[in-house]
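Progress against Task 2.4 (sequence-to-structure conversion) is shown through the following example record, which the project officer requested during the mid-term review.
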Amino acid sequence: MRVKIELANEHKEFVSGKKNGKINKIMSQSNVQIVFDGFNEYNFYIDVRGAQYDATRSGLDLVEQEMPASISFHVPDQYHKRIIGIGGQHIQRIMKKYSVFVKFSNAMDRGGVGKEDDDIKVDNVICRTPARNSQNLDLVKQEIMDMVEKVDAEFVSEHVVIDRLFHRELIARMSEIEELEKKWNCKITFPSTEQASDVVTVSGPEYQVPLAVDEFLGMVPESHELAFPSSLELRAFLTSSEYHNDVLQKLRDQYVVDVTVNEPKQETIDNKEILVEGLLLTYTRNNAGGLKDAVDFLISRL
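Structure tokens generated for the chain above:
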């Protein structure tokens, strides 16, 4: 029985081990023959042959356990030296502790052109280990990320839904958006007009993105309208100084909601002409969560 597995040439030494050590061990353990066979300039075949099904099966399992499992992620270039340590001692300790091989590449190795390249947050750290040890990959990543300051931690993206009809107004305030991006080290990406999408993406360091999203939503105005049948007492209250000083001020301070009283309008309801008071509550998207409390507070004062 024979099984062929195709693998990239760069992993040849990884699977075979030093002086073919790993492969020789498997051959003696499970009584199979393993041959590395050239396939083309990029890949090669691992040929596993055995006389008995069970022996071949266990030999194949052992070979698959030696296959490379890898994980790659981004660490800003300025931290590489700190993580590698003098003469590589830090990284050697981590590699020994978890039996994982770690390789860093910087902008120069990637052929990038300075800052622009780093904006795209390329995965510049790769950790590789045999499949049997793959559970250690996340532990290595965690240990490396712990050595990076919070500001530059793992990059994440958050999607914010904003009515696309409002995107143009936001883009017109690009200078403010650029300030915000600088402040939180984040990037705000609007969808292209062809996509007709409402989703704006905010990407940046894990700890900064929620703060950037909050400030960005602070640029998005929203409003909520309330209407009541008018009465003389209500009209008197809405124009009183008590309403202005007590209710409006509190709404502004506690809930960050502004209220404008519109002129009463004549409306016909059930064939009756009645006067309707209109209140317009305006706020920004990041404070929308407090709207219900603000409305409750306002109604409790009426």
